[in-house]
Specification:
877 residues, Methionyl-trna Synthetase, domain 2, RNA-binding, 32% helix, alpha+beta, seven-stranded mixed β-sheet, 26 helices, Isoleucyl-tRNA Synthetase, domain 2
Amino acid sequence: MAYDPSQIEPFWQRYWREHETFRVELEPSKPKYYVLDMFPYPSGEGLHVGHPEGYTATDILARFKRMRGFNVLHPMGWDAFGLPAEQHAIDTGTHPRETTRRNIANFRKQIESLGFSYDWSREIDTTDPDYYRWTQWIFQQLYERGLAYEAEVPVNWCPALGTVLANEEVIDGKSERGGHPVERVPMRQWMLRITAYADRLLEDLEGLDWPEPIVKMQRDWIGRSEGARVRFSVADHESAEIEVFTTRPDTLFGATYMVLAPEHELVARIASEDQRAAVAAYAEAARRRSERLRMAEKQEKTGVFTGAYALNPVNDERIPVWIADYVLAGYGTGAIMAVPGHDTRDWEFARHFDLPIVEVVSGGDVEEGAFVGEGSSVNSGFLDGLPTADAKRRMLEWLEEAGHGEAAVTYKLRDWLFSRQRYWGEPFPLAHAEDGAIELTPDVELPLELPELDDFRPSESGDTPLERAVDWMRVEDPATGRTLRRDRNTMPQWAGSCWYYLRFCDPHNTQALISPEAERYWMPVDLYVGGAEHAVLHLLYARFWHKVLYDLGVVHSPEPFQKLVNQGMILGYSYRYYDDDLADEGGPDVSRFSSREVEEDGETPRAADGRELKARWLVPPEAQRETDGSWRHAEHPEIELEEVVEKMSKSRGNVVSPDAVIAEFGADSMRLYEMFLGPLEKDAPWSVDGIQGVRRFLERVWRTLIEDSDGEEVLRELSTGSSSRDQARLAARAVQGVTDDLDAMRFNTAISKLMVYTRELAGLGPLSRECAETLVLLLAPMAPHVSEELWRRLGHEQSLAYESWPVADAALLVEATQRLAVQVNGKRRDEIEVPADADEESIRAAALASEKVQKHLQGREPRKLIVVAGRLVNIVG
RNA sequence: GCCCGGGUGGCGAAACCGGUAGACGCGGGCGACUUAAAAUCGCCUGGCCAAGAGCCGUGCAGGUUCGAAUCCUGCCCCGGGUACCA
């Protein structure tokens, strides 16, 4: 028997658990390192192969930093509230708590089987009342600071299902399950005033060690823009006034019409008699379209004239007021002044509806398209001749003097819709009085626990699941004795993940969400690793809460995550076809279609005859591969399937579990393989081609140290005394290379350097103990089980988790000579070897002395000679 | 649509700041060992042809530069996000 992970890995996992090897305490004398994974939602599908990628990366860092003397906080927990457990409860009647408990147990077992060095004594579960007690506490602080308020906000209401749907559950205006119509209807909701923190969220991005694209996405998401608010009066409607925001007040003379969002409150008031019906019909249709579709510019421009006119304040011209769904109610003021000459969407709209286009900034041709750049004002009265910047300033002065508007800043960022009409979330810690007053649940009554239910559906009357708990909903106000009603909503899943990184620092504190000592020592997070799909929302929400906690004095750093790394997504394969069974009823009449027979119409797939279709996804064995490489529906082989590569998800069925891989190759091979696949940040579809390579590497490492002697696995005899010079140089290069790569999180190249080191050691005669131990220590963060086993066999009694990381002897890294490429006119023609300290003059001479170079120069005099230190010489001639 | 990222051999990739394209691994080929196979070890493996001191080659088309996978412009394809999936 050779290397056998099925023996080694469980042994060491038990060893670490029993010895609490990775348990950490606050140790002020030691430098700390807090390395955090984005904790998972424990879904019923279990871990997929994408999870271990990020977790392996952070685990390598955690182990590496421990060996370099840091006190490492490396925790794991569960973001366990969420939609799937509740859906499952509705389908099966199983309490979400039970589903969640089972899923967590499964996730923990899978995660443990990979040998991660988590401090499990700090495990967190967001659905644990001891945890969400503090989520509720934070909400109360937000409320008391005026950062939580109630408002009427449109939601995806599905009358047939009697419930509000997540955007994901709505496809092209119909529910994903059953294809029932969905409309946007306003509902009273909790909102968090994240916009009050917009500027700080923007400014503090500055000092963070985050990938630049993520910073940019956050910046764009916040979308600060400076401009003006302008008020237009409405002709024949004394009291009506349309307020708009524009970044280009200098183009006000070019405003030839206005557009209101279909939901705008003025629409009903100002629509003229003869347009009323058309306006109502359009508004009704808009309610059925998703915001995403409405923002898509490629869509045909639609809109309806309201019959009303506004007065342009600069010239008192009557301009028509339209409604159109490209103007969104939730952004800005829900109304725009349209300047078709200088805004692309307005231009297209004006063209489509034959509205006037006026040039007010010179520099383009407004007949051909909108000119959105800067220039100088024309056709603009008192602005004429002014360059754009001055024209903006001048117009602002005029607006303020005339009382028609003022300078303003708006943000694309909207306040955060913070309530859900669901069961499986944190209850709001407050109650409502008849008169609308809100009483916070007293601190001693926290946590306010979820009521027990056995039916998790919304009620037919549109009540939320919580409203089924009649007794729970009713509460007596201890002060006045009057009866209050608890809030019928729960918090969104984001809530628990907004502050979990703080709780890991002090998970069992019953007096506070975190002690000042723990917070001062451990925070901020030094390295945060997770998927790029969280680039905006989770990270922005968590930063917002952190800043509120900063203002409350709970935390001392303005930002929670100092360094952020996004691991790439591991994608899965599925195989797509379409059918016309929109209501998911099945049966014999269903027609099926291959992709090539289907056209996309916006979000709606259609057959050649115009019939609406629905996409379906299969995975093997329902999808079968033919000998010609095509994929076919197993039951309907006439249907050719289209291969699609996407994020792994239940809806696609393309989730791949790591369990089988671990069983076959071992956890160390799995870890190494995921790291060896390519750079951590890169997306890639999952495949196990090539996992043999890292497994073979581990076997080679094993055989380098262990030999079979009469069926007994024993340590090879190691050479006595110190390493040979060649061995020492090889080891020094490996140490330097691996250390640099781990510091920069280049795990793939670190592994390749270890492969080279191992292979070349074999060619250098009897192995020295020093080289052997160096190999094991360098491998330890990446393949910890086999490394621990070899370390023990090398005669050490303690785990190597806290051994010192090897240091390279700088003197051994110096080379005596250097090889330089020699180019003639940029093409490589020869190579020369010169002393490492050769000066430029001798390098030139050596290059020109090359026969091959002379041949290619064909007698020409070199016009120019470029020497790049350590790299090459380029002779131009 | 908008925002972000990616595209290099048959495949995963490397090339870190504009300086020798393809390290390392998979797959494939040849050889050694073996009665044989597996395992292991060694060598070869971007394409083309007239086979050279040759030409071409990093999604496509251009540009900047002594020199471009890397920088710039335009385009194509793929992935992620798009505020109630997480």
